[in-house]
């Protein structure tokens, strides 16, 4: 292609610097559905086969919030202890953190305290943290009820969401509200 320098009707550096980038991480025990939540948000699909995340997985989506296109980077952190060092590096500069547990697995709920401490220890900037109860579609096997999880989240002063990565319930609303909150904090000079 034969293009002359300066042929674009705008300054590329100005355009790039005006983009809004959001970094979000999903943390929680292995098998709670972090990957499936991110995949549902980014691609509107569900993966039926369980493949453990090796270290970290990544999703990207341009999401319009209040007529602003946000470039959302979603880091899916492995819940396995072998990858603690990788996780801890990725907590830095996080603007939103989804602490995910499986409503059919008591241990994953009990470990939320561990995940919150890890986030607070390694996150280098204030992060908007929410608790996500996933797999709410599996009603017959549910062991963590909404009231117990809501009390835990309220005690930690974080918002609580219920989702199903399988059928998408609650995912769109959760991401819209969290991204709106991050954008609002960013426009007021905080992260």
CATH fold-type name: Rossmann fold
Mean pLDDT: 84
Which CATH C-level class is it? Alpha Beta
The parts where pLDDT drops under 50 for at least 5 residues are none
Helix content: 25-40%
| Mass-distribution shape | globular
Q: What structural class do helix, strand and pairing data support? A: alpha/beta
Rg computed from alpha carbons, rounded to a whole number of angstroms = 18 Å
Numbering strands along the chain, what is their spatial order in the largest sheet?
A: 2-3-1-4-5-6
End-to-end distance? 42 Å
Strand content: 15-25%
Number of helices: 7
What is the H-and-E element order?
HEHEEHEHHEHEH
**Looking at this structure, what is the CATH superfamily?**
P-loop containing nucleotide triphosphate hydrolases
Largest sheet: 6 strands, mixed
Task: Count all strands and give the number.
Answer: 6
Q: How many individual domains?
A: 1
Just name the CATH architecture.
3-Layer(aba) Sandwich
Model description:
There is one protein chain. This protein has 191 residues and is α/β, with parallel strands linked by helices. It has a single domain, classed as P-loop containing nucleotide triphosphate hydrolases (Rossmann fold), CATH 3.40.50. Helices cover 35% and strands 24% of the residues. It has helices spanning 12-17, 34-43, 84-90, 106-110, 112-122, 146-155, 171-187; strands at residues 20-27, 56-65, 68-77, 96-102, 128-134, 159-162. It starts with 11 loop residues before the first helix and ends with a helix. The relative contact order is 0.18.
């Amino acid at each position: 292609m034969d293009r002359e320098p300066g042929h674009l009707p705008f300054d590329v550096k100005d355009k790039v610097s005006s983009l809004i980038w959001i970094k979000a991480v999903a943390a929680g025990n292995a098998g709670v559905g972090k990957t499936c939540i991110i995949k549902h948000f980014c691609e509107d699909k569900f993966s039926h086969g369980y493949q453990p995340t090796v270290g970290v997985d990544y999703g990207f989506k341009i999401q319009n919030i209040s007529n602003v296109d946000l470039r959302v980077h979603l880091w899916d952190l492995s819940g396995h202890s072998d990858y603690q060092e990788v996780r801890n590096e990725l907590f830095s500069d996080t603007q939103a953190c989804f602490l995910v547990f499986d409503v059919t697995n008591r241990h994953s709920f009990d470990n939320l305290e561990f995940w919150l401490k890890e986030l607070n220890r390694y996150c280098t900037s204030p992060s908007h943290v929410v608790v996500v109860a996933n797999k709410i579609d599996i009603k017959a096997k549910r062991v963590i009820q909404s009231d117990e999880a809501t009390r835990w989240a309220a005690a930690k002063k974080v918002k609580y969401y219920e989702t199903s990565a399988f059928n998408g319930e609650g995912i769109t609303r959760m991401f819209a509200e969290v991204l709106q909150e991050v954008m609002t904090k960013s426009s007021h000079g905080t992260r």
